[in-house]
Specification:
There is one protein chain. By secondary structure, the chain is an alpha/beta fold. The protein has one domain: Nitrilase/N-carbamoyl-D-aminoacid amidohydrolase (4-Layer Sandwich). The chain contains eight helices and 15 strands. The strands form three sheets. Strands 1, 2, 3, 4, 5, 6 and 15 form a seven-stranded mixed sheet that branches. A six-stranded mixed sheet has the order 9-10-11-12-13-14, covered by helices on one side. A hairpin with a 2-residue loop joins β9 and β10. α1 packs parallel to α3. The two termini are 34 Å apart. The mean pLDDT is 97. The structure holds the ligand NC(=O)CC(=O)C(=O)O. The site of ligand LQR7VSFR has 8 residues, from loops. This is Amidohydrolase. Keywords: Hydrolase. Belongs to the carbon-nitrogen hydrolase superfamily. NIT1/NIT2 family.
């Protein structure tokens, strides 16, 4: 297993048409692969404005247009591609789904967002994802040449048990395609990423769309990589851009050896 790799986050604007968003994503995958990225992450709902009434119009079945383009991009650029998320249609249901591809373009995993963003904050963000979407059922951990990677989507990060579960199953990196908003982003985004990293002594990564004040739901941006010590080792602001960071799994193990939190866990004393 390779102990070090370069991971890139693409913080992109979501365009009006699905095709334009997918083109933008694919172009950026090529850009970051030229910079040496081996694992590339896209944002939540990167091919569709994050609005419940639009999910159905933009939705695709597994293997559809966006899936194909992501698979080709992964293969052409020889990268693992954590394909953000898109609205997925299966029969009469819609899901918020992340497809994950290996450098041969094979789909090696798929995560359906488990926790629905149903919030109503006074003088702040209102959103009811469950008006349009169904919830996923299972945690997602993919096998790569860099070890196991846990993938979950945005609001899933607020449930520490899910991250702990993925780490307990061997995930050495947690990746969250996400789209926090202008209410919860400034309040909780960095705090949550750093908390999951410190709780689990794991690289924790959040990749968001760029901020766009013309959209109904405004993404906070600030895509970020946090190391297992809880330090932010890379962060974008609100604009479009990308970030390439080094992931060092040996350093992660050193932290776990020196401060053996995961070994000290006494689950039997406080299982929920
Ligand atoms: N967009 C999400 O799913 C999560 C989010 O915005 C939050 O605050 O949590």
């Amino acid at each position: 297993m390779h102990k070090e790799f370069r991971l890139a986050l693409i913080q992109m604007k979501v365009m009006e048409t699905k095709e334009a968003s997918v083109d933008r994503a694919v172009l950026n995958v090529a850009r970051v692969s030229e910079k040496g990225a081996e694992v590339v992450v896209l944002p939540e709902m990167f091919n569709c404005p994050y609005e419940t009434h639009l999910f159905s119009d933009y939705a695709e079945e597994e293997g559809g247009y966006t899936w194909q383009k992501l698979s080709e991009a992964a293969e052409r650029n020889k990268v693992y591609l954590i394909g953000g998320s898109i609205p997925e249609r299966e029969e009469d249901r819609l899901y918020n789904t992340s497809y994950i591809f290996d450098p041969k373009g094979k789909c090696i995993g798929k995560h359906r967002k488990i926790h629905m963003l149903d919030i109503d904050i006074v003088n702040g963000q209102y959103f009811r994802e469950s008006d349009a979407l169904s919830a996923g059922e299972t945690p997602t951990i993919v096998e790569t040449e860099f070890g196991k990677i846990g993938v979950a989507i945005c609001y899933d990060i607020r449930f520490p048990e899910l991250s702990r579960y993925m780490v307990s199953k061997g995930a050495g990196v947690l990746i969250f395609p996400a789209a926090f908003n202008m209410t919860t982003g400034p309040a909780h985004w960095e705090l949550l990423l750093r908390s999951r990293a410190v709780d689990n002594q794991v690289y924790t990564v959040g990749c968001a769309p760029a901020r766009d004040y013309d959209l109904g739901y405004i993404s906070y941006g600030h895509s970020m990589v946090v190391n297992p010590w809880g330090d932010v080792i890379g962060e974008l602001n609100e604009d479009e851009g990308y970030l390439v960071g080094q992931i060092d799994l040996e350093a992660e193990q050193t932290i776990r050896d020196q401060l053996p939190l995961l070994k000290h866990l006494k689950k039997e004393k406080y299982t929920l």
